[in-house]
UniProtKB/TrEMBL annotation:
<dbReference type="Pfam" id="PF12697">
    <property type="entry name" value="Abhydrolase_6"/>
</dbReference>
<dbReference type="InterPro" id="IPR000073">
    <property type="entry name" value="AB_hydrolase_1"/>
</dbReference>
<keyword id="KW-0378">Hydrolase</keyword>
<dbReference type="InterPro" id="IPR029058">
    <property type="entry name" value="AB_hydrolase_fold"/>
</dbReference>
<protein>
    <submittedName>
        <fullName>Alpha/beta hydrolase</fullName>
    </submittedName>
</protein>
<dbReference type="GO" id="GO:0016787">
    <property type="term" value="F:hydrolase activity"/>
</dbReference>
<feature type="domain" description="AB hydrolase-1">
    <location>
        <begin position="26"/>
        <end position="259"/>
    </location>
</feature>
<dbReference type="InterPro" id="IPR050266">
    <property type="entry name" value="AB_hydrolase_sf"/>
</dbReference>
<dbReference type="InterPro" id="IPR000639">
    <property type="entry name" value="Epox_hydrolase-like"/>
</dbReference>
Amino acid sequence: MSAEPFALDIGRASLAGLEMGEGLAVVFLHAGVCDKRMWLSQMEAVADEGWHAIAYDRRGYGETVSADEAFNHLDDLEAVLDRLGIHAAVLVGCSMGGGLAVDFALRHPGRVIGLVLIGTSVTGSPWTATDVERMIEAAEEDAYERGDWDMLNRVQAHEWLDGPRAQSGRVSGPARELFLDMNALALNKPPLTLEEERPSAWRRVAEVGAPTLLLVGDEDFTALIERHDYLSEEMPNAFAAVLEGVAHIPSIERPDLVNSMLLEFLDAIGGEGDDEDLDEDDGDEE
């Protein structure tokens, strides 16, 4: 099954996306060092099992183009769903994409069938780092301040693909090539300076009642592993698992593992996507 491209004009942006399959919607939200291509294996897997897979590049990433205008990724996600005629969906997010999914679930609980959050960010969450992690963060800051985007890309591949405590180059081959290409596109895009700040969700995660699969790699940043543990305790309908031997982008490092866990989760919640039940339950919260 091949993915069909689409483009949606929202404000002065043209958001580029892919979709495949039919059925209940599964919307994939990419990490801040990737684009929609990080999900190609997962999209194919869920489409083959009777789901409608959708992924798009947010402003500042991939094939999406945008003028430097005031915007909010949360409003863009809502507009994408509305334009595609999707009332409710399963949201699958990694890192910043996961943070967006959490924010959307808090604002529109009736539009979220379930959540899959991988190494997720949470708006307003704390951050701590070990000494080793601070060293690589310092290398990242140095490359950024010098405007050396090629070096910054390589440092971020170490941080996010290999893992901050792992040997640089631990992940090689097509996965590394894809990461470097996705992140290079984002690093070289014109800056967007007018993104609207979203309110903190950190103290509200217990309000997210949708069934949630929490995943984190044991090679990821310590703060993200600690956050994973906190969310597993706070979110009332969460199932949590730590993935051994992978870092922040397991969808391209170990697609087989992610696909199997994602499909198991979707199979478990598939009966909960009845449109009439969702219509009765719909509501917006700010």
